[in-house]
Amino acid sequence: MQTIRHQLELLSPARDLQCGLAAISHGADAVYIGAPQFGARHAAGNSIADIERLASFAHIYGAKVFVTLNTLLFDSELQPAVDMAWQLHRAGVDAFIVQDVGLLECDLPPVPLHASTQTDNRTAAKVRFWQDAGFEQVVLARELSEQQIRQIADATTVRLEFFVHGALCVSYSGQCFMSQCINGRSANRGECGQPCRLAYDLIDRSGNVIERNRHLLSLKDMNQSANIERLIDAGVSSFKIEGRLKEADYVSNVTLHYRRIIDGILQRRPELCHSSSGSVEAGFEPDPRKSFNRDFTTYFFSGRRDDIWRPQTPKMMGERVGRVVRCDRTSFEVDTRLQLANGDGICFVDRQGALCGTQVNTAEGRRLTPQKMAGIVPGTVIFRNFDIRFDAMLKRDATRRTVALDMTLSLGPDGRFALTLADDDGVRTQTVAALAVQPANNAAAARANMERQFHKLGGTPYAMRTFVTVPAGASWFVAAAELNSLRRDAVAAHTAARQARFAPRPVATPPTSHPYVSARLGRADNVINGKAAAFYARHGAVVDEAGYECRTDYQGSTVMTTKHCLMDARGCCLRLHPEARKMLPLTLQNDKDRYRLEFDCAACVMKVIRL
After folding, report:
1. I want to staple 490 with a disulfide (CB 3.0 to 4.6 A). Which of 374, 419, 439, 512 is the partner?
2. What percent of the chain is predicted at pLDDT more than 90?
3. Assigned CATH topology for domain 2-168+220-277+285-290
């Protein structure tokens, strides 16, 4: 099992077929995608036919397709989910990402299971439970530190997956019920309304507003670019990019960025290896700062930090350009070393604290003429949230991912030619054809022509590495049209052989009965169907109360548990500043909703309680 852990997986999101193809082409070892139903992004469903096309393409490279079946299910939905799972199995998917354990009590197809991050995987005991229940991979909680990840890896053998890039849920995954209690849109059923991104006031016990109209629960985005090797050494095997609602340009840019980082590590460390095949020839210089982000954080990887939130706005501000030093009626000069261009998008926070944006009409050095000047005054800090030159580079993207082929052309005793293709994965195919051949007047020119025709692999997943003839130095002349036809047939045969080589192998998950980590389960344990209750009963746990989706009254309920502590973020950690307790209790509210905040300093978490 230690050998498996050394096989590294870059896992990218796929909103749709186009995004999935882009992810694989830019170096992903696996993609995760939503099926027609029951994925944790309600707006990111895909047809079985598109998923089958994606799996066929991925398997050429030995890459995998994981399907998200990670919503909670009511009893009436279990059989439709199982029926769909069988369709996905026939379509060639490689794994299901699962939250609702009721599925394990059903007749699932023999497809490997991954425990979704929504199963709240932050302890070694929890991860070991999923391991012993037959799961092949477990998605760890985003809040874990390097030390905590290492402790889990030391106590388990299951493959560990960790989010390295993208949006952060402020709550522990699977433990946020704010959207459900506000409007019945359950985050655990793929319908989150993102109330955490809204603006709130923060009010102390005396009624004083200590934060007004700020996005107090809105976090920056994850970016672990600098910590990939530390994550490897801590025991992570799969590096996950968040973004199943993102466009293909985002997926291409961020995937290629992490592909380069991981490849650089692999070049230095021979004990590590890819989990798929092929090399990526980049068609642009990736830069994750240019794609949508809310600024970046490494979250709690190196311990608690005070820079994880972005209360000004949940929108993208982009890269800092500089400060306005002077302006007139139509233009301004900014103190910057960046080169801006006509058509760039810029934004800034005005004196009222509102985020404003405009477009650059003309850029002449540090002098910018925007479409509108309203709100821009000396001292304003300008950000670029759209780089038109980078966008144009992405639009021209010619990135290719290819598998190297060794090609051998031989003439058999029966007068037919055989073209043999071989690759580093041990796949070897031979395509035979009767070609019209005649002695070459110029042996060197004839051989160069043959090699040239077989080298024409553009538009295919391959690149020629070597070409030889048997016997060596053969001086055949064959028309280019016939050589091209043989090459096309050989490539098709080799592609079919690679797809068969990397097709998923059936893996059954037999029933288990080892003890669950808790003996009694409540509403936060997300049991909303009888099959899930039966699963936990088989593992020695009793469900005392059904999940939040079965409730209508949420007053007094803890609707979020988060490590983002507003006291600490404001420099008033209660362990370091016990005098700050005189401010408690704190109330979080906007014009629609009110919550009481409780601080569990022993567990170092903040709880949000519905009022």
Report:
1. 419
2. 90
3. TIM Barrel (3.20.20)
